[in-house]
Amino acid sequence: MAEVLLENVSRVFGGFTAVDGVDLRVAAGEFVTLLGPSGCGKTTTLRMVAGLEEATGGRISIGRRVVSEPDKHIHLAPDRRQLGMVFQSYAIWPHMRVFDNVAYPLQVRRRPAAEIRERVERALRLVEMEHFADRPAPALSGGQQQRVAIARAMVFEPEVLLLDEPLSNLDARLRTQMGDEFRSLQKRLGITTLYVTHDQDEAMALSDRIVVMRGGRMLQAGSPQDIYRRPSSEIVASFFGAPNLLDATVTTVEQAPSNLSRLAVRGADWQGVAYGNHMFTPGSRVRVLVRPEDFRMGTGNDESDATWRGEVVASVFRGARRSLRLRTAAGELNVEVPALTQPAMGEAVEVGAARSALWAFANT
Description:
- The chain is of the alpha+beta class.
- The chain folds into two domains: 4-237, 3-Layer(aba) Sandwich (Rossmann fold), CATH 3.40.50.300; 241-362, CATH 2.40.50.140.
- 23% of the residues lie in helices and 40% in strands.
- Strand 1 (4-13) and strand 2 form a beta hairpin.
- The two termini are 43 Å apart.
- The mean pLDDT is 91.
């Protein structure tokens, strides 16, 4: 499998910059997701890798081949890039059987009939659709259509697989199931994959690395855990869930492992310990991130690095968990607790943040 390398890649439409100086390396066999809201440039970036859009600046390489470099008038057509692509709509042809849909990329490459049959059968086995080869495409469910689209993208053994919101048309249960199945397939085959989605949970579950984009720029790239637990900015932190961002002042600073700083911080009627990767000094104003699920209910909890007292002003049952909103001196807090935890409205409660859960940003 091949790596994908983007060097200072840009795309300008008239006076609008859709993608602005993206630098990204996708290692061979790696699964990387471009994540961001609509209009952030993620799909345009994917389409430039595919050759469906022409970059206006920078260089794109797949393996050892430069496939796009506007300054040298290089732009390889999509069919010369050895890529498989799965679209949001799947683009399954309704007038064809499953077999013919999967065979199409080989037919247009004029491969021998025996080779086409062997490869199609192998691709359908990979996605567990071999028993549906003769079924008309309109008779398939949404999940089955997605599998056919993946089989078609992989039948000619592409160097790289590109996927643009491939699960968005499925219901929540099937989206989770198909995402897990696809990730298992990708790991088994070791195929280099670049994936586009706006769904944070999907990105977390599938990716080796996530690239968060906004306004055509990369904000942060890292493992799902690092992006979620150690975001580089409030913008990245706020993209995931309903984070609590609290004003505080640094009182002491210590060096911690992994080039982090361990900070004693003080806020409005609370104090605690936070971590950060900036050069903080005593007296620095910071914003402290606390995820809702990192709170623990109850008093005297020695597993907490900080505590808050407040009044329950909202409670929403969500099946496996309950979402609370607390009014405190530091502002309103979003708190996730087990579903059986059911404080009364207006009840005074104390919550503590799990140890090492607080993350600090410079207050800009």
